[in-house]
Amino acid sequence: MDELYLDNIDEFVNDHNKIVTYKSLSLALGVHVNTAKQMLYHYLEHKRKESSPQLHATYLVTGKFVGNGQTCHKVSIVREDQLEDFKSKMNLIVSVHVYSVQKALLKDSGPLYSVDYDAVKDNLKNCSKYSAIRCAGAVPMSPLELQQTLKAQIHPQPEPESSGTNGGTNTTSKSNTKPQKGIMGMFSNKSAVKNTSNEVKPEQKEDTTVVDAAKSKPAAKANPMMNFFGSQTAKKSVKPVKEETDQTSSSSEPPQRQSPQPCETQDSAAAQHQKDSRSKTKRVEDADSEEEKMEKKKRRRIKRPDPDSSDEEVIPDSPQPKESQPREISPKKEKTETVQQSNGHSGMKVRKRRRVLKSQTYLDGDGCMVTEKGFVSESYSESEDDFQAPKPAQREPFKAKPNPSNKEDDKKSQKKAPANSNKGAKQASIVGFFQKK
Amino acid sequence: MFILWYFFLHKLTGGMATLTRQDLNFGQVVADVLCEFLEVAVHLILYVREVYPSGIFQKRKKYNIPVQMSCHPDLNQYIQDTLLCIKPLIEKNDAEKVVVVIVDKDHRPVERFVFEICQPPLLSISSDSLLSHVEQLLRAFILKISVCDAVLTTNPPGCSFSVLVHTRDAATRNMEKVQVMKDFPWIVADEQEVHMKEPRLVPLKSMTSDIIKMQLYVEERAQKT
Questions:
Q1: What domains, with CATH codes, occur in chain B?
Q2: What angle do CA A372, A373, A377 make, to 5 degrees?
Q3: For the domain bounded by A3-102+115-126, which CATH number is listed?
Q4: What is the pLDDT of residues B82-108, one digit of tens each?
Q5: Of B49, B50, B57, B59, which to mutate for an interface test with A (greatest number of A Cβ within 10 Å)?
Q6: Fewer CB atoms near the end CB (10 Å): N or C, chain A?
């Protein structure tokens, strides 16, 4: 390989004062990424021998790391001065290579992302032309296919979550492997290491093996904080499928703020989805329940395992892991199961629901007392009366109109009540306080 | 603010459209865009030049890239108030330069980050791509500020900063009469802050777009300590 590339890199680094990452170099010079990495390495060696003005470099380190008693695969960007220290902490180093070369000492990893962002954006059609990651099945969709996918996402059809659909596989694998790699990157050495969830993502996109949900469960449950991020990244990964927006953010702040909203929209979509599916045949229902299982398994990383309640609608849960919630949710699941199935289930817990006209008083956002009258799906049991009643009441005024006295619709409304009641479960303590007046 | 702009462009029937400065709606949009950018830029300058300890900064997202913004409420309020007062000047195209001056303990400037702003009198918007193009240019500015460490020498400890605005003609007379913000007065800057003796000029970035032309350079004092 001729030596012109040294001059090119020199021009970028010294004259233009640019940050040269291996990805932007490969796109600029039209070479394979591995060649670009080697080029950067040789350039560094060359310059250091010449003792020219100081250059700084960052390295990408990949390997196995044991932390908190569990092994994980860690991918990190490390500054040169912290490289040796970081390498000594890893158990097994799979790869180390130059990530970027620049004149300035970077205080944080933000600019590295910006460099690649613009480089990729300029070469959007062929950004993976020089990449080392390949997947024969990953081809851009034709406009017709794209339209069909968009329609399918707006009106979600219950599709079997088997390996038949490539997109489905990728979603689950993305959501399951992402917690492992993305979180570990986030919780790596804070003083030096920078997160590379961007780097990890392209690798996962091509990963077509479906990681068992059970495997990720014990790994995630060990650290409750990781669950917090894990559930968020999982929910975020489902959202891109639904809304076709690609949000990669390596910082923890935006995901935290954004995730409550995606969770809510996703939850209402899931509730709607369940409502629609009920009126369909049983065969479809089985497939549907499988999807619920997958969704529930994702959510169940926060909750305690409840192997009994399955084949039921997904009860939306807020991302905050709360101990009280799992306990409330599991008895409710059993309750609605009783109602939905045939009435001849004497063996199950006898908790029936009835609709009662009640007026509920609560404190709204401005601190005013609001009284609402509405039909409340109320359970007979006394213990859960106080916190259960107000939650449906908040939703009832909206539900009252589209509810004819059809049995099916009764089921729907009752189903909606537990779905929405759990949203109110979080505020149960506040409303309950005022109820007892 | 970009959303506002996008809706505005949607109303136009595609193709070329010409707006004049009198079209205040558009002027406001440009001022909004610029003030947002200046806010991000000021925070980033404070972070990169270590005017304040890096602990008060947190990563936030702007123009789809991570940027460092301060969490300190007083500092944030000060910067916001400053830019709020500058906004009317930009709207009327009275602001020639916005300067972020970093001064040392003796109140002598060590560095001046000069944003020269120029708006063409007749604006022509061609299409929606204008939006993403400007965003891309502003991203490049942010990137350049992030690596300006390489071309500037280290500042002495204990620096603080101030913001100056150079206006065209006598726009400041209006500013004195009509205080844009209560309890946030603007004063005529000291001569020593405005002019540096024999500064070293370091150009950082310039951009040209249909709606605005901006140039960023740094005047650096030769001897900082």
A1: 25-221 (3.30.900.10)
A2: 110
A3: 3.90.1030.20
A4: 998 888 888 888 888 999 999 988 888
A5: B59
A6: C
